[in-house]
Design brief:
The protein has about 450 residues and is an alpha+beta fold. The protein folds into 3 domains: about 160 residues, Beta-Lactamase (2-Layer Sandwich); about 70 residues, no CATH class; about 150 residues, Heat Shock Protein 90, CATH 3.30.565. The protein contains 9 helices and 12 strands. The strands form 3 sheets. It has a 5-stranded antiparallel beta sheet. Helix 1 packs antiparallel against helix 2. It is rod-shaped, with a radius of gyration of 47 Å. The two termini are about 30 Å apart.
């Protein structure tokens, strides 16, 4: 249902179903009504022929002087039946077609009034009945009441209705299919500009275009123009960001070089430690400079990072930072754990989490690295600190959010970890650790270069 084309087709299909359903009901009702009216007219003609064939016999009784013209009256079980009843409702005449069948009769109306209604045989067969009550002159000034009745089975009529319904459903199903195919082709043409926008945006992402074209329908011209303005704005912001970082790197070059030269007079061991931290600062600057101009993680030729070596370097540096606290940092790296991507990204993830754990722990920090699938990574950092309340975990991942304003920090470390993890298709989760504090877990799925 995320497809606009599918939504339109489903909506049109529902409307067609409702419209065609209502049309079928109307046509079926009209056909049945017209058919019953035609049957009534036919029965009326048979009734007139029955009246025409009746006459008073020499014995003073009403009888038929000739056979009825319709041959079905003479065929047993033909479905068309005629009868004449007297005032006592006794049958004085019944057509050969209804012999031994017990044809039901309906109550007569007023003399000269026809009564048209449905009846049923004992076996449930539906019938249509037309009855006429008359006053017949038997002798001079002697009138006797008689009821003339013509009955017809509805089996053939119902078969015609069923056949009409089948044809109706077939016609409308074919018509609906043709209309849906036609509408689908029409929508494909109407939605082509949207697919063009999607293609051009993908070309902009891959660097093959710099802006959207202008040959769109009037309804999409404003969208394309606004997107172009947004793209230009973001391109300008990216350029300003890159220039700012270039300026920062240029400004830090001289202080770093001066610090390196000042360490020359120190003892060899101290000099090595200072140079190690200066190299680390220089590497961080280069990493931050690479980020604006580098492609997203999915588009890089991804190389594996030496996890144990990089974590060891991080922990060595953090032991110096937190030498007064002297946390017990234990690391467990399982075979098969792998991170394919930029080394700086891994250092940002692991460094921020381990630094955060050292800052808040009481004395114990546990770092666990496990494989997540074939080529994925599951990095967990747990501490024995005060932990993170469940209601504050989601808010803590927002940039600039901190639980304790009295503790040094900027509140962006976890947001950086979350952003980097999501850029690799992973996620960051906060839980309670077995040590009693907080546990931060980053899951990175296996990475594959985009082809």
């Amino acid at each position: 249902m995320y497809s606009l084309n599918a939504r339109l087709l489903i909506s049109v299909s529902v409307l067609l179903l409702l419209f065609f359903g209502a049309t079928i009901v109307v046509l079926d009702t009209a056909f049945r009504t017209a058919g019953e009216q035609a049957r009534e007219d036919i029965l009326d003609g048979h009734l007139m022929s029955l009246l025409a064939a009746a006459e008073v016999s020499e014995q003073g009784e009403l009888a038929l002087r000739r056979e009825l013209p319709e041959p079905r009256f003479s065929t047993l079980g033909s479905g068309l039946y005629a009868s004449i009843r007297d005032s006592r409702n006794d049958v004085i005449y019944q057509s050969r077609s209804g012999l031994g069948m017990g044809i039901p009769s309906s109550p007569p109306g007023a003399p000269g009034q026809e009564v048209f209604e449905r009846l049923w045989l004992d076996d449930g067969t539906p019938l249509l009945s037309l009855t006429l009550a008359v006053q017949w002159e038997i002798a001079e000034d002697e009138l006797r009441p008689f009821v003339f009745s013509v009955v017809e089975s509805l089996d053939s009529f119902n078969a015609q209705v069923a056949g009409f319904r089948r044809q109706l459903f077939g016609w409308f199903a074919a018509l609906a299919a043709i209309m849906l195919v036609s509408i689908s082709l029409l929508l494909r043409g109407l939605l082509r500009p949207l697919r063009q926008i999607e293609t051009e945006i993908a070309d902009i992402e891959d660097g093959r275009r710099t802006a959207l074209s202008s040959d769109f329908p009037n309804e999409l011209t404003g969208v394309a123009s606004n997107l172009n303005l947004l793209i230009d704005s973001e391109r300008g912001r990216s350029e300003r960001y890159r220039n700012t970082l270039d300026n920062l790197a240029h400004s830090l070059k001289t202080p770093l070089a001066a610090m390196r030269s000042l360490t020359g007079d120190m003892a060899a061991a101290t000099n090595a430690r200072f140079n190690e931290q200066i190299d680390r600062m220089d590497e961080i600057v280069r990493y931050q400079l690479r980020k604006p101009s580098s492609a997203p993680a999915g588009k890089l030729l991804l190389a594996p990072v030496d996890i144990e070596q990089e974590i060891s370097r991080l922990i060595d540096g953090l032991r110096k930072v937190y030498r007064d606290k002297a946390p017990d940092i234990r690391v467990s790296v399982e075979t098969g754990a792998e991170f394919r991507g930029d080394t700086g990204d891994f250092l940002e993830i692991a460094g921020n989490l381990i630094d955060n754990a050292c800052k808040w722990c009481r004395g114990d920090v546990r770092v666990s690295v496990k494989p997540a699938g074939s080529g994925g990574l599951l990095l967990s950092v747990a501490d024995d600190g005060p932990g993170v309340p469940a209601e504050a975990r989601e808010a803590l991942l927002k940039r600039g959010m901190r639980l304790d304003e009295n503790t040094p920090g900027h509140g962006i470390g976890l947001a950086i970890v979350k952003d980097i993890a999501e850029s690799y298709g992973g996620h960051l989760a906060i839980q309670e650790s077995a040590l009693g504090g907080a546990q931060f877990t980053v899951t990175i799925p296996p990475q594959r270069p985009r082809t």
